[in-house]
């Protein structure tokens, strides 16, 4: 088999792996790989930092997606060509419901499609819905680890500023269409904002792949805009949860 376009890997490089953990941040890939047995770096190209390791003897791929839908769609398309069928996103997020605390883990059942890339896979009426089994594994993982978590809908936006209704200190400008949008999502019981799950869920549902997403809360925007938690502490909790979910999915039938 030829190498895929961006990741530059062949199927043989993945050693038969069928599950990938997909963080946004490239540096998170390496940190996650350190929890696996015999981790190796397969490639570092653009935003895609790819590692292979073993979880209780099963091969697992870690591949960062970078920020947003377009690069996420490339990672997913190319990993699927290499044999990956299950994608577990581990992200960071901003909560918009007052009962959610910094450091909590949010498991997304579905996402509001505030992205553009998902429309290249399915029309806007098509739901950005997670895979039930993979999402249940994330919930089970949080429960068994005693991690405070919330399960529900996520708003997934192409932009960090206007799409998430952030009034930056440079222009303070958010176009009319997004003014008041955060309050509307709050009213509709949306838990949080992040930037990749709408593309991931839509394309995986459309292409017959499985996807789930959990994210660690860095900030609760009902109280403040700038995080004051330790990113690494939040990340560690999310990594522990996603690895447990991967283990459940890979080994539950053995
Ligand atoms: O921490 P990651 O996985 O990158 O996720 C979140 O953080 C980035 C924005 O700061 C976006 O990618 C968003 O989805
Ligand atoms: O508020 C936030 C925090 C992290 N990532 C996002 O996309 N939004």
UniProtKB/TrEMBL annotation:
Presence of keyword Transferase: yes
PROSITE patterns tied to this protein: PNP_UDP_1 (PS01232)
Subcellular location: Cytoplasm
Pathway of action: Pyrimidine metabolism; UMP biosynthesis via salvage pathway; uracil from uridine (phosphorylase route): step 1/1
Any single Gene Ontology cellular-component annotation: cytosol
Keywords on record: Cytoplasm, Glycosyltransferase, Transferase
Gene3D superfamilies: Nucleoside phosphorylase domain
One example GO MF annotation: uridine phosphorylase activity
TM stretches of this protein: none
Nucleoside phosphorylase domain sequence ranges: 19-249
Pfam families: PNP_UDP_1
GO biological process: nucleoside catabolic process; nucleotide catabolic process; UMP salvage
Classification via NCBIfam families: PRK11178.1 (NF008383), Uridine-psphlse (TIGR01718)
Family of this protein: Belongs to the PNP/UDP phosphorylase family.
Role played: Catalyzes the reversible phosphorylytic cleavage of uridine to uracil and ribose-1-phosphate.
Protein name per the record: Uridine phosphorylase
Organism: Pseudoalteromonas peptidolytica F12-50-A1
